Amino acid sequence: MVLVYSDNEKLTRELLAKGRELADALGKKVTAVVIGPGDAADEMIKFGADKVIVAEGGPETFKAEEYADILAGAIEEAGSNIVLIGSTKAGKELASRLGGKIGAGCIIDCNRVYLDSGELTVERVVYSGNAVSVERFNSEVKIATVPCKAFDPLEKDDGRSGEVEKKTYQVGEYASIVARVQEMVSQGVNVEDAQIIIAAGRGLKNREDLKMIEELAEVINGHTLGCSRPIAADLKWLSEDNWIGLSGHKVKPKLYIACGISGQIQHIAGMRDSSIIVAINKDADAPIFKSADYGIVGDLYKVVPRLIEELKKQ
User: Fold this and answer.
1) Residues facing residue 114 across a β-bridge
2) What is 137-175 written as a DSSP string?
């Protein structure tokens, strides 16, 4: 049995697609777990789940200890030996604690999950993106966390049927408490779902020059700006909502235009799955060109205005 859980609904659909693939290959079924209100339970059936367990009576806000108790109960009840959990901040904490609780192997941030000779095998980026580690489990229950955009969700099938079951699981008493929950202030940017991203890098000399990148985004009708780490983390010219990379957001747009980005592996790890990558850089030896489908060697202060001018003619 394959069990799927994430606190992110879109990521849950992506996990269900992979869970469905694994289950079909093994002749098993897919169970999805919802902790809290089960409003999305029927949707999970349509996106690949055979059964959805709605765990009621849990904590009102996320607590890894209680959530681990709930998932441990669901795993035992369903007889699951493959568990896929979304690699959100909460998901990674939950997966690690769950693995320790039930004695299961746990591998974090797997961007590939597949069967090799019938054995669950995963791959993940290590050493800041300089290598790929291929790993297997030696435990009966296997837990893998998967980040957003690693898999494409299945097409919604309104004709699929399945079982939705409401359950209450016993959770222990723990010393930790949630004292306060504060929502992160967002700039309204959602690079993870963007189809066209224009990304700015350290090749920009001044903050005001971002207006040039914004204008390029507007004429392409892709009003989403991205950036490399220095622009968001060091210079603070854009928010972390725009940051693309290993420590930022992972994206998978149809078109990614990198303006003045050198292409360090930490940035490439966040955008390598883009359908078409266009790089603009005056350094012909910049690493970004190794990942680009199209490369323009030139000063972005000359290339970008010329691109804007030509695009406006279309």
Assistant:
1) 121
2) --SSSEEEEE-TTSSPPPPP-TT---EEEEEE------S
Task: State the helix-helix crossing angle for 300-313 and 210-219, rounded to 10 degrees.
Answer: 30
The C-alpha atoms of residue 101 and residue 67 are separated, in whole angstroms, by 11
Domain with CATH 3.40.50.1220 in the chain: 191-313
> To which H or E segment does residue 124 belong?
strand 119-126
Given a contact cutoff of 8 angstroms between Cβ atoms, the answer to whether 16 and 51 are in contact is no
Identify the bridge partners of residue 56 per DSSP, sorted by sequence position. 168
**What is the predicted pLDDT for the residue at 156?**
94
Per DSSP, the three-state class of 261 is coil
- What is the tens place of the pLDDT at every residue in 96-116? 999 999 999 999 999 999 999
pLDDT under 70: residue ranges of the chain: 128, 184-188, 222
Identify the H or E element spanning 311. Answer: helix 300-313
The model's pTM is: 0.82
Fold that domain 191-313 belongs to in CATH: Rossmann fold (3.40.50)
Element (H, E) at 255: strand 255-259
Within 10 angstroms of residue 182's Cβ, the number of other Cβ atoms is 5
2-168: what CATH class? Answer: alpha beta
Written as one string, the DSSP assignment of 31-93 is EEEEES--TTHHHHHHTT-SEEEEEES--SS--HHHHHHHHHHHHHHHT-SEEEEE-SHHHHH
Measured CA to CA in angstroms, residue 279 lies from 25, 65, 121, 186, 286 at distances of: 40, 45, 34, 28, 10
Cα(102)–Cα(122) distance, rounded to whole angstroms?
20
Q: b/e per residue, 99-118, with b = 16+ CB within 10 A?
A: beebebbbbbbbbebeeeee
